[in-house]
Amino acid sequence: MKQHFFSISNLRSLVLAGCLLTAVSCNQTSDGTTGETNEVAEESGQLEPLTTENAVEVLTAYEQQNQDSLAVISTRHGDIKVRLYKDTPLHRANFVRLTKAGFYNEGEFYRVVKDFAVQGGDSDEREMSQGAYKIPQEFNPNYIHKRGALAMARYGDERNPDKESSSHNFYIVTGQSVTEEELRAFEAQHEMEYTPEQIQTYLELGGEPGLDTEYTVFGEVVEGMDVVEQIEQEPVDGSSWPRQIVKHTVKIVNE
Length: 255
Fold this sequence. Notes:
Protein name: peptidylprolyl isomerase
EC number: 5.2.1.8
Strand content: 15-25%
Domain PPIase cyclophilin-type: 78-246
InterPro entries: Cyclophilin-like_dom_sf, Cyclophilin-type_PPIase_dom, Cyclophilin_A-like
CATH architecture: Beta Barrel
Oligomer: single chain
Number of domains: 1
Radius of gyration: 17 Å
Keywords: Isomerase, Rotamase
């Protein structure tokens, strides 16, 4: 199920209203992917679907046995290397587990909102099932929605008051420039306080502070932000679906 994210915390996010984590479909065409990596992967196709009842237990056990923290997302535009944070252990374990099973190799970047984010992880052509479960939020004050942040989508607060993450839909922030006045307003609204370093990061890189404390950031782009920018420039339809799909594969790589 493809899921959307949005934030109503600032004006530029209002364009996403009405499509928060909703299930939709889109027309598909075929294309290829590029980019080879030093793969450290389990046999593809071996994925036991999880449930609400066992997801945390399984992911906790998996995290203890799998300490991988680098992945490469390959697309027809090139490769995006991401680092997964070890102190968001459930989200890291979930992403690594799905990657090693080949789940994300059936996915695509299916939603593009310029100056906001690109979202991937699913496809209407998917054959592998991950199960019906969500991941408990792992908000960490050290991790913000700066440009290049990797985070998980989720359903809205009315049906998901605990802000649990999607099992598989992720997004990469592109965002816009941010002023210090805007950051102070977000601090008051979210009852939080940015560090001087985080303020400087937002002022230099930009991002989407309106999503902080609302969605779990569990990694960041370390190489290939230019590829994300190319995906962001894809022509889209009225629902923000790329007119030519951007398939992706994901591999775990060595440090």
